[in-house]
Specification:
The chain is an alpha/beta fold and 307 residues long. It is built from 8 helices and 11 strands. α4 crosses α6. InterPro entries: SRR1-like.
Length: 307
């Protein structure tokens, strides 16, 4: 949970709340119609720098500042290392749940202007992001962090990723993608592949979501290899991946095949006019963000009718 600082007066009447919602909605829609960018690399860079300082600061309570669309800075409280059960009975005896690194919670235009946004508050009405914190479960007896989800062993994950990579070469879909990239003459300009919200390749071993995640990361490798083999040369196309669900084994296995896992929101800083972005079915507004910050070579995603 993120606590705003300073706290705003509670107890708004229904009429006051409705008026403030209408004002914020009209303001936001007017800025959108004027073409004012809602997202920028500078916003992401400043957030990333503040998140890094939070983890290095050694304090249990720290502030992160975000600027709303109305230009007003809003200070939010983060609590790295805090036990979420502090002062009460633990949820699971023998375990401790600690808040860890902060990350952004993205809001698209619909969420910013919806009358049915459950978390609406006047102090956050103009923020295109909120801040949430991940948690870790610590086994006190074993002295280690544990994952509540079933996970594959590392060799199984490696094999599944290798199989996924080889599978793409024989698919009609990737054949069409290769043809499009080659025909448009963009191969020389491609310098990186950025994967966003592609999920964990180690969790939920037999679940469809896990297979999809493996396939999406394998696609990152397939695109990289195609560009390097046909234009750039080995080692010239960098790969990045960002998803808050990643666990250490994800980072290890992906790192072994040349995909660098970065913390939110750092992946956006890697996107430029030489990027191929892969975001198949993201729960964050990838296309809205990209429209403001860059014009990548290609975006590989599901067609709207398939979402």
């Amino acid at each position: 949970m993120v606590v705003p600082y300073p706290k705003y007066p509670a107890g708004l009447t229904f009429e006051e709340s409705a008026r403030l919602r209408l004002e914020s909605r009209q303001f936001i829609l007017a800025r959108y119609d004027e073409g004012v960018p809602f997202y920028s690399k500078d916003i992401f860079r400043k957030a990333a720098e503040q998140f890094e300082l939070c983890l290095q600061g050694g304090k249990s309570e720290q502030e992160v500042s975000l600027v709303g669309l109305d230009g007003t800075p809003v200070r939010l409280l983060v609590e790295p290392g805090k036990d979420i059960n502090e002062g009460r009975e633990p949820s699971w005896p023998g375990y401790k749940v600690l808040r860890t690194k902060p990350r952004l919670e993205y809001r698209n235009l619909h969420q910013l202007t919806s009358d049915h946004r459950p978390s609406w508050s006047p102090d956050r009405a103009y923020l295109v992001f909120d801040i949430v914190q991940s948690t870790e479960i610590h086994d006190l007896a074993a002295g280690k962090v544990v994952d509540p989800w079933p996970m594959a062993d590392v060799e199984t994950v490696r094999q599944r990723l290798r199989h996924g990579r080889s599978h793409w070469d024989s698919t009609l879909l990737f054949g069409r993608a290769r043809s499009i990239l080659a025909a448009t003459g963009v191969l020389p300009s491609i310098n990186n592949v950025v994967a966003l919200a592609c999920g964990s390749i180690t969790r939920l071993v037999d679940d469809l979501d896990s297979r999809r995640s493996v396939s999406q990361h394998a696609l990152v490798l397939a695109v990289r290899d195609f560009v390097e083999n046909n234009e750039k040369g080995e080692g010239t196309v960098k790969c990045f991946a960002q998803d808050p669900i990643y666990v250490p084994m994800d980072k290890q296995v992906l790192g072994e095949v040349g995909i660098t896992v970065v913390d939110d929101p750092s992946a956006w800083l890697e996107v430029d006019e030489g990027s191929v972005v892969i975001a198949i079915a993201p729960t964050i507004p990838v296309e809205e963000v990209l429209a403001d910050i860059a014009r990548p070579v290609a975006i590989i995603t599901l067609a709207p009718e398939n979402l």
